[in-house]
Write a structure and sequence with these properties.
The chain is an alpha+beta fold and 380 residues long. It contains nine helices and 19 strands. Strands 9, 10, 12, 13, 14, 16, 18 and 19 form an eight-stranded antiparallel sheet that branches.
Length: 380
């Protein structure tokens, strides 16, 4: 075989080499950023290996006295192994289970925790338990552009502090040591339960569970009808005085009034209210008679917020408002206009976040008035 005959197929494969060079150092993206990266160097090395095999086994021989028309046809370029071949991709660009890797998902406009969890076929709790440092079990800390870890299975994404052994981590989340060591999502098969993961190492805990973080409201209201406790976290909307007024009777109205709406998130341990979505500037009404004890912007996610104290420790929250029509100390009647729907604070779309609390403990609004998603009404 002559030198000239060897050069031909390699020259014709130069575009593939150029493509590999362009990919050096680039991460691979599809929909979301995947935490397992395949660099351009990896692809280039694979390509060069393919070229060596191609040159050794597939280069046609050259005989001047023979018709070489068939042999001179360029061979098909080598097929590069797809680095994500094992990851089936749905038409919308999202991976289809089973997944083997942790992904980073960027919250998009209109996203809600329920929607994200459903998209990846996960329990909503897993989203919180995979992003403890970011979300602190507070759904209001989700905002557009936030990066979330998405596990390949339900469980917890533990961030090691360098003090707990694998056995202690397993006990913390109610799983066995083997479930952690031999999980395909970790590379810990050579370790034992006595080993301590390095500080900063993240470990997937399949089927793990933990207690919820206790999250406090911006204002702790008093139990006397129409009075507020001025102590609490300082926010621009904090009412720093005590007010007196008429409390409610314990009968609550739907704050949407007669306006049709969609339920975008329901009540859950990690979501202390309901999210009701409609058009911008939809009027919102006081669910019960009370006194305004918070009126203004809340820095930790609620955005423009109104809190009414109804007495005996009962309060209602009206969050993400575009406009509010009440101020600190105002006496508000049941059914009175409070504000207009918006998307302020940590909100990814137009909606009212509404809460009912007793002594700062969230109550399920479904137990107090009828909540009917317009989509369910139209389907009947």
């Amino acid at each position: 075989m002559t030198q000239a005959s060897r050069r031909i197929p390699i020259v014709r494969l130069l575009p593939w080499i150029v493509l590999a060079g362009l990919l050096i150092g680039a991460g691979v993206f599809f929909g979301e950023e995947i935490l397992r990266f395949v660099t351009g160097q990896d692809i280039q090395e694979e390509l060069l290996s393919e070229l060596e095999q191609f040159s050794a086994t597939s280069t046609p021989s050259f005989d001047p006295g023979t018709d070489n028309s068939a042999e001179d046809q360029p061979a098909a370029p080598p097929t590069l192994p797809d680095p994500f071949q094992s990851e089936e991709i749905a038409p919308d660009g999202f991976p289809v289970d089973p997944r083997q890797h942790v992904y980073r998902y960027v919250v998009a406009p209109g996203d809600a925790l329920f929607l994200i969890a459903d998209r990846f076929n996960l329990d909503p709790n897993t989203i919180f338990w995979s992003n403890t440092e970011t979300l602190q079990d507070n759904v209001h800390l989700i905002y557009e552009g936030l990066e979330l870890y998405i596990l390949p299975t339900d469980g917890v994404y533990h961030l090691s502090d360098g003090t707990l052994s694998i056995a202690e981590i397993a006990a913390l989340y109610g799983v066995t040591v083997g479930e952690i060591l031999y999980s395909p999502y970790n590379r810990l098969a050579e370790f034992s339960g006595d080993d301590i993961p390095d500080e900063g190492l993240r470990v997937v805990i399949p089927n793990g569970r933990r207690e919820y973080i206790s999250w406090r409201a911006p204002i702790q209201t008093g139990s006397v009808s129409g009075e507020t406790n001025p102590e609490g976290t300082i926010h621009p909307g904090s009412c720093r005085q005590q007010y007196t007024g008429t409390g409610g009777t314990g009968t609550y109205l739907n704050p949407m009034g007669a306006t049709p709406y969609r339920v975008t998130q329901g009540f859950a341990p990690w979501h202390p209210g309901v999210d009701l979505a409609a058009d911008r500037d939809t009027p919102l009404y006081a669910s019960e008679t009370g006194v305004v004890v918070f009126a203004g912007f809340h820095r930790q996610g609620y955005g423009e917020l109104v809190i009414l104290d109804h007495g005996e420790g009962w309060t209602t929250y009206y969050a993400h408002l575009d406009t509010r029509f009440v101020g600190c100390g105002d006496q508000i009647s049941r059914g009175q206009l409070v504000g207009l729907m918006g998307s302020t604070g940590n909100s990814t779309g137009l909606h009212l976040h509404f809460e009912i609390r007793e002594n700062d403990i969230p109550q399920n609004p479904y137990n107090f008035f009828d909540i009917q998603d317009v989509r369910e009404t139209n389907s009947n």
